[in-house]
User: What shape does this take?
Amino acid sequence: MKAFIFDLDGVIVDTAKYHFQAWKRIVEKLGFTLSHTQNESLKGVSRIASLDRILSWANTTLTEEEKQQLLVEKNEDYLAQISTMGQDEILPGVLELLTYCQSNSILVALGSASKNGTLILEKLEITSFFNAIVDGNHVSKSKPDPEVFLKGAHALGVAPSDCVVFEDAAAGVDAARAAGMRTVGMGGAKEVAHADFCFHQMTEISTEFIRSLA
Ligand code: BG6
Ligand code: MG
Assistant: This one.
């Protein structure tokens, strides 16, 4: 049995713009302006690890309590932005691929750093396509550590070498490779050029290609 493990942000739905806005507003309070390039490098990185990176760019040290407060505020801003999110925000080709997997006995898992993974799948109304969900609530180590994908494979009962990971972030491709899985880099960014295969969006992925993977 083969399995596909999907990252969430940037693969299933384009949430990067919401994360970016939320971080920007939060760190402006610290007198720091977050650039697009810096935001790119935060893709796939957990909320706490993202804050630590931003604080080091801003040359700022905060107490544990202050950090926790910022993390709460950042997530509240993010949740407010995605409150009206629905099926129309699913990236092109995703529903078709999930449907193909369901009809062709390809197991499907979520492998995301986000602690909002379950909520977002529900908002997009695609939870039922997933045989397992592993998100930021289930892991102790952030991508590029392979933990999230190894847990996904384990939850599906599939060997890592039988899993294919769809990822849009460098940290995610590195994590999947460290887990011994094949990788499909999504979105066309140079950061995922080291994946085994690369596509701009899922509509470019043919049934023949999917069959060759599974
Ligand atoms: C990743 C995103 O999927 O999840 C990151 O690419 C984000 O930008 C991380 O920081 C954690 O997400 P959340 O929803 O738990 O803040
Ligand atoms: Mg991603």
Q: What stands out?
A: The chain has two domains: 3-14+86-212, 16-82. The CA atoms of residues 16 and 171 lie 15 Å apart.
